[in-house]
Every structure is written in structure tokens, then in C-alpha cells.
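G., before I forget:
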Amino acid sequence: MITRDGLDQIAAEEQARQAEHKQCIRVCTAAGCLSQHSNQVKEALEAAVAEQGREHECHVKGVGCLGLCSHGRSSTVDPDDVLYEHVKPEDATEIVTSIGKEPVERIKCPTDVPFFNRQVKIVLENCGIIDPESIEDYIAHDGYQALATALTTMSPAQVIDEVLRSGLRGRGGGGYPTGLKWTTVAKAVSDTKYVICNADEGDPGAFMDRSVLESDPHRVLEGMAIAAYAVGAQKGYVYVRAEYPIAIERLKSAIRAARRAGLLGRNILGTDFDFDVELRLGAGAYVCGEETALMASIEGRRGTPRPRPPYPADYGLWGEPTLINNVETFANIAPIINRGSEWFASIGTENCKGTKVFALARQITDTGLIEVPMGITLREESCTKSAAVCRTARKSRPCRPAARPAAASRRSTSTCRWTSSR
Amino acid sequence: MRRNGNRPDALIETLHSIQSTFGYLDEPALLYVSDMLSVSPAEVYGVATFYHYFQLKPQGKHCCSVCTGTACYIKGADQVLANIEKTYGIKPGETTEDGELSLLTVRCLGACGLAPAATLDGEVIGNVTVEKLQQRIEEVTVHDNA
């Protein structure tokens, strides 16, 4: 059974281990780049490092989504702070040779541009940095510290209060105040309660949740555990689409690792809090993104929605009080506990706090993932990419957001319409 | 089923396991699951037919799934799909006569940044064109009449 001190020790050991290598090449191994065989790029880089006898100083690491999917296969080199695009295995030797010297210009991707500079990363802060298949790497980057803080220094009511004061609203599209939903579930009287993560991201064009699950699965598990503590749940389910095989494998691996580390299961971090998570796969039904249909599917039935009330908070999975939140919502919880509700509430607008992850796809020049403060306009958002994107956006027909943030924009451009903000 | 305590809620996970092992869900498998999980055959059949992912017919040696989500459709997935249909003489949900290739459609693989996307034998292929996908299919299949 791990304690908080044990967690800190794992973090310190992993940080020390990583510090042994002065250089790090990170290769994107999320679905987009993997579909372009970025695994071969990683292997070629590892071979080039070995060939040049630099294993003691240079570490090649597979990481999650680096964001600019249309420019994949992507890699970053530290401490040179260089981003490479469209990397081929044949470029490996040149990349390794160039570390500490002039970067390889023909594949260098500019990073001092609005696309990167104007982003504010909270949900995606570990994506492209940590190895999604290493719990130690997650712990070394403050992973599970929020859970430890919640379990050892806060009461469930204090956790809910912090989430309430952060102003976080559901990121699945409904925009319902997260703290309010947690309060409702917490107040429900039952010995058995559930927490469900809705990872059935069915909206065409949306791949935010997929990227988070592939790039930082422990962030989601930690958020679920904190939520379970707050509302009094003992069991969690992540309902993920069958069409996301990489996300499924990484989640399975993360759950196993968290159980082995004692961060899921019984008496977590030496407390009397028990919580475990199971994966449940969707099977191609778009309707199962709706919470009541999703619960029917977890129960092994056809994904048929039912009228509400009663709401899941009162009558959910197997008739018990159930908290359902989106992947991105859970991914915001650990930072809120770690940095405080005041910090989170300082980002965004008056009615819509924090950031929103957007998936940029379709008829634009640069596609990928960005995370920007709530309140950004579509024009500003397009212009975080490039001038070419702006020109394309102006000529485009009406577009819709891949997700429907609660208040993504209060102004619309002449060529774009948004769903109504709240 | 045992891992899930032979409970009725293990149904969908069980059907997933059967499909990934045998390629599709046949009637004996559905009846076996019905018996083991104490779920009526009608309910098992209802679940198997409700979810688009489950196949109740044998699949080909290779399976190509073309994403027809909005991002991919706008980027020309319909043309990619039409070419496969024309070249191999099958529609989505069908298998070529020689059993080499099955064609499916899927609504969003989440690879929208690389639209149009498709999968071939589970591997995601991004930035698919008519020619690129056909070439990839030809690399893995042997056809008499392609």
C-alpha cells in the first residue's frame, strides 16, 4: 500500500532518472502520427542514438499528441526546444547529430507562432511531454498529487467546494456546473454510488477526448478518483468507443499500473477510501454518448435513452446515484485541486471558466488540437493557426465547433455560426 | 464471462471478445452466451443487432473500414468508398466472393486531423486517397477479379 511519502519518493526517483539524460527526443505516438508509422521514426531515432554512442546522454521517448496533426509525424528535441514536422526514419541520424548544434532546417516547425503562443494548456499540459504508458512519468509530473491532497488534507465537502468555486462546467457539451452535479450526487442517500467517465466521443470531427486518453490516461483516472471521493462512490467505469483501440489499450495499461501502485483499489494512499475503475467498450452506437443510453450499455442492454427525470445523480447505473462527466471535465480536476479554484477561475470569462480543447479538422490548412481560454472568438481561434487558415476560414461555409463549449464565443464571424452560448 | 462474474452486464464485453476471436457473432455463440449469462436469446440478439460494431456474418480475410464522419466525408470519403465498391463489387457490410475483403463504414475514427481516414485490418490510415487506399488493399489481398 503506497502512502503519500511513497508517492513523493517515486516522483523523486523518476525525476532523478530522467535528469541523467541531458537530452530528450520525444516522438508523438498518438493515433494520428502512429497511423503514419511514427513508431518507425522512434525506432530509427533509438538506433541513431545507439549508433552514435549517445545512450548515456540522450533518451528517445514515445509521448502523446503534440498538437499539430497535419504536420505529423512530429518530434521535439530538448533542451534545444525544437519541433520537427513530417519526420521520416531517414531523418533520424541527422536529427541526433544536430542536437546541441543548428537544427535540421528543412523539417523544423516554427513554434514562436500564435498557434502555440496563444494556447493555455491545462488539460493538454502533459500531452507530448510524458510517456502515456509510464505511471512513473506521470507521477514525476505531479501525477496523483491532487488525489493525495484530497484524500489526506480535504474532506469530500471541501473538494466539492473547490470544484464549485472553480466555476468548471461540463466539457461534454452540456456545460452544466460540475460542482453542482457533484453536490447532487454527494447528497443522494445510498451505500452504493458510481462514477462514469463518458469517453464515447461520437461527434464527427471531435478527437479531443481520444487524444487525452491516448496521451495522459492517468490524468483522467485521477480526476475520477477525486470525484469518487467527493461524492462517496466506490466504483468507476470508463465507457470508451470501440473505434479508439489505442486509447483502449493505454487506458487498460494505466488502470493496471494504477492498481499495482495502490492508487486504485482498496485503502488508497493509506486512507479508508476504496475506488476501482473498469473499462467498458462501446460498440458503434452514436446514441450511447447520451448518458442514459450509455448507462444502459454498461448494464449490457441496448443503448436506448430514457426520459429524465429521474436524473442519473438520483437514479443512475443499476438504479444507484451516478456521477457522469466527460473526459475533459475529469482532466481538469487534478489541476484545480493542485493549483486552486481561484487560479482556474482567473482564466476564461465571467460565466465560463478555464480553457477548452478544440479539434481543428476539415477544410483548413493546419489541423490538430489546441487548448485556449474560454471566450476566444472563432476568428481569434483561427488566427492562432496561421494567416492561410484565416483566409480559408473566411471562404468556408458555415462551420460548427467539434464540441459545443458553454461559451466558446460571444461573437461570430460572418461566415461561421456557433451554437448558442450560455 | 467468468471475469465479469457471469453477470448479464458482461454481455457486450463478451460479444466483443467473441468477435475479436472468431471474427463475427454466429448463432451458436449467441445462444451459448445467452445460456451462460442467463439473458434471453431475444435480448442477446437485440443487443448484437443494435450495435453497429458487431457483425453477424463471417468477415473476409481482410477488413477495410472507411470513415464517413463529417470531417472525412467533406474531404472526399464518399469517393474513396465509391471506388472500393466499384473495384471490388461490394457494398458496405458485404464481403467479396473470394472471401478476401470485407467493406465496412464507420462514423468517426477520431483521426479527423488526417481526414479522410480508413482502417485496413485494424490499422488506421490517414490522408487516404482513392489511389492510396486501393494500393494498400492490393498489397494485402489476392483477388481473381480485381
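The longest helix of chain A spans residues 4-19. Chain A touches chain B at residues 31-32, 34-36, 69-70, 72, 201-207, 210, 241-245, 280-286, 297-303, 359-363, 367-369, 402 (CB under 8 Å).

More on Monday.
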